[in-house]
């Protein structure tokens, strides 16, 4: 199978990481070569940038500085990890990518989309994923799910911030409907997992029941 670049997007608490791990486990069972990675971060150096990004002091920085930090991390991640894995025929499952920048630094922080596009051209030549799953959950429900978990700098943002983030995601989806798939993230974890599997079935053939060879129909006893 050829390499694939699949990204997971949505508000904090929408279930991206939970579902990404499920997909990875399913690929593992099927022996499909894959890697799991995330943004910001994904390489030792990019993880250092992630730590900086999530520190309380970073709340003081200008939105464009924040933008440059995430694109610096992204470029290194793309060069060092994502592109080599895709070239090697692996499935890359990535928790957040450039859509998050449009959503958070754009919608959340008010950096104009044309400034983000400019930085994206420089950092990644506007590299788009092959497919992006958007985990749809209202800002209010996402906030409820985040309760109890250790909050980082972004998790502490206001509901108004998350509403702007959500709207910016909606603009991204409207602009590139062929790349996005919207997953209803408000249902129980197993139901969301089934929706994810169905949504990816054209790219990643579904798991066959144990003992049944691919391409052969299961027969009763
Ligand atoms: N479908 C679901 N129903 C109820 N709770 C869920 C569901 N999916 C995930 N959760 C729970 O919600 C919380 C957030 O999930 P998760 O960490 O996967 O979200 P995330 O999108 O990766 O968030 P972040 O952006 O903050 O990393 C976790 O406690 C998780 O167990
Ligand atoms: Mg997560």
- Integer average pLDDT: 91
* Morphology call: globular
Strand order of the largest sheet: 2-3-1-4-5
CATH fold annotation: Rossmann fold
Q: What is the CATH architecture descriptor?
A: 3-Layer(aba) Sandwich
Main β-sheet: number of strands, strand sense, barrel status?
A: 5 strands, parallel
Supply the number of structural domains.
Answer: 1
Class, according to the CATH hierarchy? Answer: Alpha Beta
Determine the fraction of residues in helical runs and give it as a percent range: 40-55%
Give the uncertain stretches in residue-range form.
214-221
Ligands present: adenosine-5'-triphosphate, magnesium ion
| Assigned CATH superfamily | P-loop containing nucleotide triphosphate hydrolases
| Elements, N to C (H/E) | EHEHHEHHEHHEH
Structural class: alpha/beta
- Quick one: how many beta strands? 5
| Cα-based radius of gyration, to the nearest Å | 18 Å
Strand content: 5-15%
Helix and strand topology:
Blueprint (H helix, E strand, L loop, with lengths): L3 E7 L5 H15 L3 E5 L5 H11 L8 H25 L3 E5 L2 H11 L4 H12 L6 E6 L2 H8 L12 H17 L4 E5 L4 H12 L21
Parallel strand pairs: 1-3, 1-4, 2-3, 4-5
């Amino acid at each position: 199978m050829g390499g694939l670049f699949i990204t997971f997007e949505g508000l904090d608490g929408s279930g991206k990481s939970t579902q990404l791990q499920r997909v990875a486990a399913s690929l593992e069972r099927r022996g499909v070569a894959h890697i799991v990675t995330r943004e910001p971060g994904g390489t030792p150096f990019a993880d250092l940038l992630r730590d900086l990004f999530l520190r309380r002091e970073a709340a003081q920085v200008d939105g464009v500085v924040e933008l440059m930090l995430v694109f610096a991390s992204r470029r290194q991640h793309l060069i060092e990890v994502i592109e080599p894995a895709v070239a090697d025929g692996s499935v890359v499952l990535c928790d957040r990518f450039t859509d998050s920048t449009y959503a958070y630094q754009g919608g959340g922080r008010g950096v104009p989309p044309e400034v983000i596009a400019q930085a994206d051209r420089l950092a990644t030549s506007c590299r788009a994923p092959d497919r992006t799953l958007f985990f749809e959950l209202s800002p209010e429900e996402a906030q409820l799910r985040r309760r109890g978990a250790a909050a980082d700098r972004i998790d502490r943002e206001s509901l108004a911030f998350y509403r702007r983030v959500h709207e910016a995601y909606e603009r991204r989806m409207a602009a590139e409907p062929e790349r996005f798939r919207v997953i209803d993230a408000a249902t129980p974890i197993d139901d969301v997992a089934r929706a994810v599997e169905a949504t990816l079935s054209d790219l990643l053939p579904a798991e066959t029941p144990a003992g049944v060879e691919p391409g052969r129909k299961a027969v009763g006893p």
